[in-house]
Design a protein that fits this description.
- By secondary structure, the chain is an alpha/beta fold.
- The protein is 37% helix and 18% strand.
- The longest helix is centred in the middle third of the chain and has 18 residues.
- 46% of the residues are buried.
- Bound molecules: ligand PBG.
- Ligand PBG binds next to helix 6.
Amino acid sequence: MTVISKSELRAGLTMSRRPRRLRRTAEVRRMVRENTVSVDDLILPLFVVDESRERREIGSMPGVSQNRVREAVEEAAAASALGIPAVLLFGIPAKKDATGSGSWDPEGPVQQAIRSMKAEVPGLAVIADVCLCEYTDHGHCGVLREEGGVVDVVNDETVELLVRQSLSYAEAGADFVAPSDMMDGRIGRIREALDAEGFSSVGVIAYSAKFASGFYGPFREAAESAPKFGDRRSYQMDPANGREAIREILLDIEEGADMVMVKPALSYLDVIRDAKEISDVPVVAYNVSGEYAMVKAAAARGWIDGERVMDEILMSIKRAGADLIITYHAMEFARLRNQS
Ligand code: PBG
């Protein structure tokens, strides 16, 4: 290391403001740090398959598996032991049909997992994702009807099925249900039904601004939920629309959402910031499967430092305004935090 002496190279700008003073040492940087990511901010997604299946790692998501109920409960216990406050459950049923009826089966994988987690892992919040795409044989997030030669997901009928699914998860003991389908009016209707059935303490986390995104690719492998035809653009949002996201968020708050969500996170940091400004309920951001897969793939090739990029990504989501982050990195982040 060659250092230059003062006499060797003379310089001296006349400047009283030098931002670098606050970056000189690790202690000073720590003192002036504006944002932090804590394990308390993280929610771990878990995939639960029917008992007839094997545990299987998702090829495009290293470290993430399809779990049977027992394995999911063990994973949840490990997450809780590391200080992660909540898990988000997705189910893959034994059989799929046109209406996604497996989603309100009291013996479905998610219902079983909720019951076991509530019994065996006290101190862990259990959030159940509400959507039909993993349960329908066509892979769309609702029931289909043809109108004027166009086959599309019908809104109001789908909402009634989402209500059944939500009540079934509430009955099993979920702390929150999280509708990710993007039908109009489902937050209000689910809230009303939960209250009417005696589940007024079960919360609703609304996927409010969920965009039709290419970043969901790996998830569809994990949840076996890719649509068999067409795409989700008639219900999920157009990536071009920021103002419409505000409208969706305000509607969900009005309908009784306890928290609102923006998804995906990284290409939508501006939407997270807008959500934070207008929302008086917590804002959740979903750091989705494709965002995770890109980090893992590049890190495996040695192209980036995976841990450092993970930290930077989670920090950017916090800085944008998220109160909570759903992320497949949760276990890795918590393990590293618990070590240091
Ligand atoms: C729909 C749902 C999706 C995700 C969460 N809930 C996928 C989709 O809309 O196709 C994606 C999550 C991820 O990519 O990590 N039930």
